[in-house]
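Re-run with default settings, no changes from the original entry. Doing this only to confirm the output is reproducible before filing.
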Amino acid sequence: MKKLPSIVVPARLKSARDAGDDYGVSDEPDWRGIDWVQHLHRVEIAGTEVNYVDIGEQGRDRPMVFVH
């Protein structure tokens, strides 16, 4: 698996005052409308329980993993 380091710098708090009225408004599909509990699973890796979400269909596309 290829690991990509993050080069993103968090936004500064004072940047919020420059945001437009539509900041935070998003298009569909809206991640807030997904029943995440339905896709939530737990697995033990090296003696530690890890929660993960499995969403999407199996196919030819390679899976993507986000670590939070």
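The CA atoms of residues 4 and 44 lie 24 Å apart. Strands lie at 40-45, 48-53.
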